[in-house]
Fold:
Amino acid sequence: PELFSQFDDRPLASASIGQVHRARLPTGECIVVKVRHAGIEEKVRVDLDILAGLAHLAEQLPEFEIYRPRAIVSEFQRVLRREFDFTREQRAMVQFEANFACDDRVRVPKSYEKLTTPRVLTMECLEGIKLNETERLSAAGADRREIARRGADLYIAMIFTHGLYHADPHPGNILVLPDNRIGLLDYGMVGRIDDELREDLEEMFLSLAQQDATRLTSIIMRVGKVPSELDEASLCLDVTEFMWHYTQVQVDCLDISAALSEMIEIIRRYRITLPPRVAMLIKVLVMLDGVSHLLDPQFRLIDVILPYQKTMMWRHYSPTRRLRKFKRFASELERFVEILPRGMIDILQQVQSGKFDVHLEHRGLEPSVNRLVYGMITSALFLGSTLLWSRNVPPVVWLPWIDEFSLFGALGCVTSLVLGLRLMRAIYKSGSLDRH
Structure:
């Protein structure tokens, strides 16, 4: 009674981590209270341990190795543990509320910091229609096409302007309010884009606009973690074909979800690992495109992104950005100059004391070394067996058409012949001595 004048024991909604109850403050305001499920931490911990074990087994299979299951599970664990702390979600709500304070198209629920703890989140109650309730939207006379475009425009503004975006845009988290306003719920999963990532994204879009496949390939290699054996020429060729295919498609026919999925498939094919924040951003864009199509089947996300192209270009070549990049470069250069003398002194001291070691790692030599040893053993076996045969070393066997011969010598010659033929067949199939 000191905190709430009314509290509904029956949950309004329930999810994996918490459930939501309707309540009322002593001042009369209608609110909702999000409460963490009892004992959910232990249940999730057990599930995560099982998931980590399955990911470890999956990574042993070659067909799943390129997806890096353990890295995905590790990132999933990190995100899920952050969702357990409702104070993080409350701070994110405050930031979103500030970002859209002057935008009448969106409504962010007001949060109550004094009534929020890591286990409890108190926020304003928004009354609206969820996006998946299409019949109610039609009955209410909502402009579904305008809502789809407005929602997509809000998300693109979050990504390219604010650098903070709602990372779980499924229909249950988006409400349609009166006057086609959009209400966003559940801020447990948010994505952040720093200046460096924003610059990479803008360069990527500019490369697509200018059909510069070499530049786009370079950006992909810079953003992702590339394997040591990457075939850069083949990657550039695939990116060129991808770019040529989608630049020939008319804008009103471009399926951005299909384009993103194909680009991800190219990246995975070359075993390039994208940072979790980039993977999350791509997931959000694909989900956003799907939710928008739920409202308007004729919707094209590219129509919303294209107007930002000119803004991205101006921002990319603006003097302010150039000055900021120069300051960053000067700061990194200053740090390099500071640590260089100390590093050189350490190396010289190790050389003088005889403790300087150079560690070399040979990659791809195992097949060649194995075959070399295999061939030497086969040759030695053949030479030794011929000596045994020529000298009639006991036990000796007599055959009418051969006369006397050494049994061990004959067996050794036949064995070495079989081993030699097997080695020649392996070399012939691989086409090269240094391949598996």
